[in-house]
Amino acid sequence: MTLLDDFIGWYFTENPVRAALLGADGYDHTLGDFSEAGFTARERAAERWLERLSAEPTATAQDRTVQDRTMQDRTVDDEIDRDLVVSHLRGAVASARWPEWRRDPAPYLGAIFGSMFTPFQQRLKPEAELVENAVARLAEVPAVLDACRHNLDPDLAADLLVTRGLNQARTARRFLTETVPGEVADPVLRARLAAAAEPAAAAFDAFVTFLEGFTAGGTWRMGEELYSTLLRERELLGYGAAELHEKGRQAWDEIDARMREVAPRVGSGEWGADWRAAMEFLMDDHPETLADMRAEYEAETLRARDFVRDRGLVTFPEGEECQVLPSPEFQRPILAVANYLAPPPLSASRAGVFFVPYTPDGFTPEQVRQRLRTNCRAQMPSIAVHEAYPGHHWHLSWMAANPRKVRKIFRTPYFTEGWALYVEGVLHEQGYFDTPATELAHLDCRIFRAARIVVDTALHCGDMTIEEAETFMATKASLSPGTAKGEVNRYCAWPTQAPSYLTGALEIRRIRDDYAGDLRKFHDEIAGSGGLPLGLARRTVIPG
What we know:
Blueprint: H1 3-14, H2 16-22, H3 36-55, H4 69-95, H5 100-103, H6 106-122, H7 127-151, H8 159-169, H9 172-179, H10 187-212, H11 224-234, H12 241-262, H13 275-283, H14 290-311, E1 321-326, E2 339-341, E3 351-356, H15 365-373, H16 380-387, H17 392-399, H18 405-409, H19 413-429, H20 436-460, H21 466-475, H22 481-493, H23 500-513, H24 519-528, H25 534-541
Parallel strand pairs: 1-3
Antiparallel strand pairs: 2-3
Helix pairs in contact: 1-2, 2-6, 3-4, 4-11, 6-7, 7-10, 8-10, 9-10, 12-20, 14-16, 16-19, 16-20, 19-23, 20-21, 20-23, 21-22
């Protein structure tokens, strides 16, 4: 048993929902400890684990022998595994200065909703066992919500974050008493689950009332110091927030110039180089309904899969499957864009789900129309590539075969989201976006990610207001005002994540430029290595 094995055992015990969603056995029956004592104990333990793992010696170049290549490779992989966990722990220790569990209902609600929904979506166990585990977790929901009430600090919690939690909590009664039991085929088991859900739903009713009356006086702004620390120590980037902001502005200018060249070739070209006007024209060609949007995304996903296979761009994992489904109800109030649910990497499953961004039930017809416009037919090829082939679904299905357990547990969006945007660029090179409309929409998806870098860094460093950020996203990318509002709301709640897409894509492309080998081999190797911080990802494919 190695020190890393010991750490993984501790991590799973302290994070049972995460462990279960990864496919680890024995953690399905509990939500875990959300008390103040539980959070503070985990913070102190993370500091001790960081100290122990940082002190573990690493092999030097002199220790490795060229004669024993297998041992050399194993030593390099061991070092990368250790450095991956150390980067995770450095991020956790730094983030403890900005305790999410005191500021935001999200850690509590995310555990409840995810643990109740995902097992029924993935179906890794018999239905009776799924219901038994769900009943056990439902019994813990009132205590988790009580812990949130106790832990939220009015001086630290931000009104924006509390409102996000409130909107999600309002979906809980229907979700727990109707949606989740509706996933159960056996009528006796379904009735048992619905009955067990009622006390949890009642606890949510009281929790909604609590949040409605909660006065929050804190800020959602992380600040430049911690933001830069996370970029350098968790993501292992060689720069901080100011440098990242400037990279985003430069990337926006470069993509803007390219879009000005493509825009005159779209439609009648009457807008000349005004690519925003061209995108407005393209956005009017969209599916008629949300159901139509899902069906068209499914067709586009299959087309992307065939294209990638025919071009030999990657090796497909055995048994992979990607469903295309409406986003679950509990996600709709807080997520306005497509997203992906990966197969549990510690299981044998290779089935994932591409969730199409349905609107909340209370949206007006105009709000629904705007959501459809931001999923127009010209944009669908880029989004399907990003979410499915060879983006998230292919990557996370492929990397699940990596034999190194720690790579399946810890990953960063700077690789996973960077990969998905990188492969959009690969398919552009390969001619997948074969009309001016789809090419412009592909570039629009890219400039949108450049705008995210600018906005996220500016918001959290205090250089931009929410209103300014919404205007920026609605004018510097082709987002509708409603979608721009939802996007900015997300950036406020999830600092450093939004820049991961383009930042990661550019870094992966730089690694590829230095790689000696063919394209398919590069893709298989770097994506198969996991979802590593980009400096570690380079070490998996570039010797020395």
